[in-house]
Every structure is written in C-alpha cells, then in structure tokens.
Amino acid sequence: MLRRMVASSLRYRFIVVAIAVGTMLFGVQELRSAPVDVFPEFAPPRVEIQTAALGLSANEVESFVTVPLEQALAGLPALDILRSNSVAQLSQIELLFKPDADLMHSRQLVQERIESITPTLPTWAAPPFMMPPVSATSRVMKIGMSSKSMSVMDMSLITYWTIRSRLLSVPGVANIPIFARLLRGSMLGVRTSSYIASARVLGLPRRRVLGVHMLPNAVSPLIVAATLALATAIIETAGLGFLGLGNNDPAQPEWGAMLANTTRYLQSAPHLAFFPGIAIVITVLGFNLLGDGLREAIDPRLI
C-alpha cells in the first residue's frame, strides 16, 4: 500500500505540489489573521476553584467545604474530570472539561453553581474564588514587538526597562522572561570582534558569517539562561506541590506533594523525605550541568 501511495504521488507530482503550495498559502494567510495567541493550546479547558477556610483542619475542610462544592459542581455540561484537594485551611477543586467545550461558557456555568452553593457553606469560610484562566504553560500572555522606525536594540531596552517593569506591577504577575534580549546583546558583542571583521574582509557570505562565526559564539548565554529557567521551574513546581497547589491526580505523583506527605513521618521514618528531596536536587543539578556541558560543546572559545 505504501508503494502504491509513493508511485501515485510521483505520477501525479504536479497535483501534489499544487496541494502543498495551496496548503502552505492557506496556513500563511491564517497565521497573519490569527487573533492574539498563535500557539496551540494542547490542554483541555480547565477551571480551578480555591476556598480559604481559616482555622480548619484538612478533614474539616474536606467535610464542610470540598464535599458540598463537589456535589454542586458535579453534572456540569461537558465536564470530564473533577478533582479536589483539601489541606489545612484551603480547599482546591479542579474541573477539566472536554476539549470541544467553550472555556468562557464553562466558567460561567461554574460561577452560577458557586453562587448557589455559597450561602450554604460555613460562615467562617471565605467565598469560593475561581482562579484566572491561564494556558497549559502557565503563561497568561505572550507579547511580540515590531517597528519600522526603531532598531531591535531600542525595542529591547524599551521592553526591559518600561514594559517589563509596568507588567510586573500588575498583581499576580510573577515572571516575565525575555530571552531574545540575551541573544541580541550577545550578538551585538560578537559583531564587533576582530574575527568577524576578518571574515568580512575575506568576503565570506553573510549567512556563513552569521551561522558559523557569530551564532555559535553568542548562543551560550541563552543556553545557560534556558537551563537555569528550567531548573527554576522545577523548583517552583515542587514548591507548589509541597503547598498542596500542584497537580492533585494520584496517578501523576509530584515530588513536592510526596515531600509534603512525608512531613507527618519525619520522627518515625525520616528517610521517606530523602528520596523526593534528592530527586529534586539531582534533577535541578543535572539541568545546570547540562547547560554547562552544552555551552562548553557549542562555544568555540571553550573548545
């Protein structure tokens, strides 16, 4: 069957090329008219509800807050999975809807159910709060800049000193990574080097100068920053899991949640906390060493 498909493609190659060109043009047109987020969302629609209950233990939170909310939210249209986690003074409920469900409509239905069940909750519990929607990568917004009158360096400075500082003042914004600025700064530093000037004097093509001489010498800071950011993300994820705010699916254990579950056994079995802790340390250290190794392997100045 595969041989027949290849033979048919070669026989009608002009039709195949025409279909490929048409598909490419259609994709370019759709990309230009895309609204805001051009990155595909691979996670299903997700709604998270948190309820603070000061002074209550985990069992009391489960009985007085989590269970009534679960009973009220069960049976929502297009609801696929309903998860919950009850820790001391906090109830967390996560609702995963089917991939074809509309997120805004689902949030509206959840809000209606919450408003109907809130009067029946204990008076000492805070009203249930629905967390803001975020993407699967926990990125609320990705911003790109372009200008016909400003240089890339000027836009980079405006992004770092003006836009980034103002966005960080928004409540809830924790981090705004700007990796392109690192690469831009490295490229500007390499561009003034003597070997780049020699390559230009010899008449080498721009693509060769950029790909062979400039990029390998400038990419090492970006690799180090990326590996450090990945290690930081692992530590932050483990910290959220330790606080009970991470993934609550028992089929997908987290090191932070495993470490939190061992705190009750520190006196009788302290070795239980060793394994998830050492796994976090080894993984973070491994990514840091991986970044150093890639930098030493790619950077011609260190070979």
How would you describe what is shown here?
- This protein has a four-stranded antiparallel sheet, covered by helices on one side.
- Helix 6 packs antiparallel against helix 9.
- The protein has helices at residues 2-11, 13-32, 58-73, 103-117, 152-168, 179-191, 194-201, 206-218, 220-242, 255-261, 274-298, and strands at residues 46-52, 79-87, 90-97, 129-130.
- It has three domains: 46-130, 2-Layer Sandwich (Alpha-Beta Plaits), CATH 3.30.70; 152-201, no CATH class; 223-301, no CATH class.
- The model has no long low-confidence stretch (mean pLDDT 78).
- The two termini are 50 Å apart.
- The chain has 303 residues and is of the alpha+beta class.
Summed up, what is this model?
With 303 residues, the chain is α+β, with helices and mostly antiparallel strands. The chain is 55% helix and 9% strand.
Please give a handful of descriptors for the protein shown:
Alpha-Beta Plaits; four-stranded antiparallel beta sheet; 11 helices; extended
Low-confidence stretches: none
Corresponding CATH architecture of the largest domain: 2-Layer Sandwich
In the CATH hierarchy, the third-tier topology of the largest domain is known as Alpha-Beta Plaits
H/E element sequence: HHEHEEHEHHHHHHH
Largest sheet: 4 strands, antiparallel
Fraction of residues in H or I helices: 55-70%
